[in-house]
Design brief:
alpha+beta; 4-stranded antiparallel β-sheet; 4-stranded mixed β-sheet; 592 residues
C-alpha cells in the first residue's frame, strides 16, 4: 500500500468516526415532526437489572418482531457500548393516541415460556429508543401464591400489554416512558405452551419543558439534595485534606529545607561533611535503570493526561451528555489515536535528554505500554461475551476498524511525535554534576522502603476522592448517571495536586536519608492511588448485587485497565513534581 493510499484510508476512517460522533447528538433541526408523522422506535437490548454489562439482543427473547428484522446502522461508539438497535413492530406516530393496539398474536412454546420465565426471575429489563431518547421497562413480574398453605410458592407473569407515555412540546418530543400493565399478564410459571396477544397503547401529553433540556431528566437523580450534599461534603473533605498537606509540607519540610540551605557550606572542609540530601548531590541526577521503559511511562502518562483533559473540554462544549455512551466511546477511541503524537513526542524528547540514540525503542514501548494490555484484556472479555452471546461481543468488522485505526492513525502519529521530539531534543538540565560511580545507599528501616511510602502516597489521595469514586463506580457499573462534570473535574484537579504534594514530601524524606534512587520511587508513590482504586472496586463488587462470570470479568477487566491508566497518569505527575522540587533545591545549593 502506497503512502497516498494509506493517507486516504486514514482520512476516510476519521471522517466516518466524526460523522458518527455528530449523528448521535440530538439537534432541533432533525427532530421536528408534524401530526401523524412516523417516528421510528428501535428496540435495543435486554438484560438482568443487577448485571449492567450482561445484555443481549432484544429478540433473544421471543418477542413479536418484524420479518425481516432490520438492524440500525451503528456508530463505533454504539457498538463498543453494546448497543444493537433493531426495528420493531410498534407504530408510534407523532401525537396519535392508540388504545389496546394489537402488536401480534404469538404461540409461545414450552421453550419460549422457559426463556421468559428465566428473564422474569432475573429481573430482566428491556431498553428501547424513540427519537434518540432511551427508555426502559420490565419484562414481567413475580408474585407470591397466597393460596398455597404448605409453603410459599412464586408465580411468574409476563406483561403482554405495554403503555407508552410520550410528552411533547410543539412539534418536538421531550420525554417517553414504557410501563407494563400489571393487570394484563400471562402466567408463565409452568412450561406449558400458551397463546398470547401482545398489545400496546400510546398516550400523548403536552409539556412546557424545552427540547434543549430533554436530556436533563436522566441526571435528575444526581441533582437530588442528598446527592448534592454528598458531592459538597466530598469536595470540602478534599479541600481540607489538601490544605492540611500544604500546611504540613510548609511547616515540616520548608522550614527544615531553609535551615539546610543556610548551613550547606561554611568554607571548612570538616564542617562541609554533611549528611542527608546535600551529601548525595553527585548521585541524585543519575539516570534511572530501564531508561527506555521509564521514558515510555512518561510519554504514555502525559498522553493519558491530555486525553482526560480533552474529555472534560468535550463535556464543557456539550458534545458529551448524559446517557449517550456511544459518543463517549467514540470520543475515547478518536482522542487516544490523536493524542498518541503527545506520547511519541514526550517519550522521544525525554529519552534524548539522556542519549541521542535508542529513542526508537522507547517510542515502541510507548506504543504498546497501554494499548498492549488493553488489547489482551479486551480480547479475553470479547471471548467471554461471545460465549454468552451478549451484545458486548464485538463484531469482526468492528475489530478490524479498531486495528486499522491503530495501524494507520495511532502508530503514524506516535512515530511523528517521536521524530519531532528527536529533532527538537535538548540536554538534561542538571544543576549538579553526576559522579562516575554511584554512592552506596545506607541500610534503611522497613518503614522507609518503597511499599510503605507507596501506601502513604496512595492512601491519602484515595481518602480525598473515595466518596466521588463511589458515585463514579455507581455510574459506570450501575444505572446512576454521573452528570456533575464540574465536580468531577475539580476532584481530578485536587487528586493531581495532592499527588504532587505528597510526591514532593516523600521524595524529600527519601533524599534526607541519603537514598538517591528517587526516580522510579516517585512514579510508584504517585501512581499507588490506582492500587487503592482497584481495591475499592473489589469492595464495590462484593457489596453490589452483581453476579456471574460475564459481569465479574467485565467489572474487573475494565477496572484494571482504568486503574492502570490512572497509575501511569499519577505516576507521571509524581515524577514531574518531584523533578521540579529536586532541581529547585539543588539549584539553590549550587547558588549558595
Amino acid at each position: 500500500m502506497s503512502k497516498m493510499e494509506a493517507l486516504k484510508l486514514i482520512l476516510i476512517i476519521i471522517s466516518l468516526l466524526l460523522t458518527n460522533l455528530r449523528s448521535i447528538a440530538s439537534s432541533p433541526d432533525n427532530h421536528r415532526y408534524n401530526v401523524g408523522d412516523h417516528v421510528p422506535l428501535f428496540v435495543n437490548k435486554v438484560g438482568p437489572l443487577n448485571n449492567p454489562s450482561e445484555t443481549y439482543q432484544y429478540y433473544e427473547l421471543p418477542f413479536c418482531g418484524p420479518d425481516p428484522v432490520v438492524q440500525k446502522k451503528e456508530s463505533l461508539g454504539e457498538v463498543l457500548s453494546g448497543d444493537r438497535l433493531t426495528s420493531a413492530l410498534y407504530k408510534l406516530n407523532f401525537r396519535e393516541n392508540k388504545v389496546a393496539e394489537t402488536l401480534c398474536h404469538k404461540k409461545l412454546e414450552g421453550d419460549d415460556v422457559a426463556k421468559f420465565r428465566d428473564a422474569v426471575i432475573n429481573d430482566f429489563y428491556f431498553q428501547m429508543y424513540y427519537d434518540d431518547l432511551p427508555f426502559w421497562g420490565f419484562v414481567g413480574k413475580i408474585e407470591e401464591d397466597s393460596w398455597t398453605l404448605e409453603k410459599k410458592s412464586l408465580k411468574y407473569f409476563l406483561f403482554k400489554h405495554v403503555q407508552f407515555d410520550v410528552l411533547y412540546n410543539g412539534n418536538q418530543i421531550i420525554e417517553v416512558h414504557a410501563i407494563g400493565d400489571p393487570n394484563q399478564v400471562v402466567d408463565i410459571t409452568e412450561d406449558v405452551g400458551v397463546d398470547v396477544q401482545f398489545t400496546y397503547s400510546v398516550v400523548w401529553n403536552t409539556t412546557s419543558a424545552a427540547f434543549d433540556t430533554r436530556m436533563d431528566r436522566y441526571s435528575r437523580a444526581s441533582s437530588l439534595p442528598i446527592h448534592l450534599k454528598i458531592h459538597w461534603f466530598s469536595f470540602i473533605n478534599s479541600v481540607i485534606t489538601i490544605m492540611l498537606l500544604i500546611g504540613l509540607l510548609t511547616l515540616l519540610f520548608m522550614r527544615r529545607l531553609r535551615n539546610d540551605l543556610r548551613t550547606f557550606s561554611t568554607g571548612d572542609e570538616e564542617d562541609d561533611k554533611e549528611v542527608g540530601w546535600k551529601y548525595i548531590h553527585g548521585d541524585v541526577f543519575r539516570y534511572p535503570r530501564n531508561k527506555s521503559l521509564f521514558c515510555a511511562v512518561m510519554g504514555v502518562g502525559t498522553q493519558l493526561l491530555t486525553l482526560v483533559c480533552s474529555l472534560f473540554v468535550l463535556v464543557c462544549l456539550g458534545i458529551l451528555y448524559p446517557y449517550n455512551r456511544g459518543t463517549l466511546c467514540t470520543a475515547l477511541v478518536i482522542l487516544y489515536s490523536l493524542t498518541s503524537v503527545v506520547a511519541g513526542y514526550t517519550t522521544a524528547s525525554f529519552h534524548c535528554q539522556f542519549a541521542e540514540t535508542g529513542w526508537e525503542r522507547s517510542v515502541l514501548l510507548a506504543g504498546i505500554m497501554y494499548a498492549g494490555p488493553l488489547f489482551v484484556i479486551g480480547s479475553i472479555l470479547n471471548v467471554v461475551a461471545v460465549s454468552y452471546g451478549a451484545t458486548a461481543a464485538l463484531p469482526f468488522g468492528t475489530i478490524m476498524v479498531i486495528i486499522l485505526l491503530y495501524a494507520f492513525l495511532t502508530i503514524p502519529l506516535l512515530v511523528l511525535g517521536g521524530v519531532i521530539g528527536y529533532l527538537f531534543r535538548s540536554e538534561f538540565q542538571s544543576p549538579c554534576a553526576t559522579k562516575r560511580y554511584p554512592r552506596e545507599i545506607p541500610p534503611l528501616p522497613w518503614y522507609r522502603d518503597t511499599p510503605c511510602q507507596m501506601f502513604l502516597g496512595g492512601f491519602l489521595p484515595f481518602s480525598a476522592i473515595v466518596l466521588e469514586l463511589q458515585h463514579f463506580y455507581a455510574s459506570l457499573w450501575g444505572y446512576r448517571i454521573f452528570t456533575l462534570p464540574s465536580i468531577l473535574f475539580i476532584m481530578f484537579i485536587i487528586l493531581i495536586l495532592i499527588t504532587a504534594i505528597l510526591s514532593v514530601g516523600l521524595t524529600y524524606i527519601q533524599l534526607s536519608v541519603e537514598d538517591h534512587q528517587w526516580w522510579w520511587r516517585s512514579v510508584f508513590c504517585g501512581g499507588s492511588t490506582a492500587i487503592f482504586m482497584f481495591a475499592y472496586c473489589i469492595y464495590f463488587y462484593t457489596r453490589s448485587s452483581m453476579s456471574g462470570l460475564l459481569q465479574f470479568s467485565f467489572v474487573f477487566g475494565y477496572n484494571a485497565c482504568m486503574c492502570y491508566a490512572f497509575f501511569l497518569m499519577l505516576g507521571t505527575v509524581g515524577f514531574r513534581s518531584s523533578l521540579m522540587f529536586v532541581r529547585y533545591i539543588y539549584r539553590a545549593v549550587k547558588s549558595e
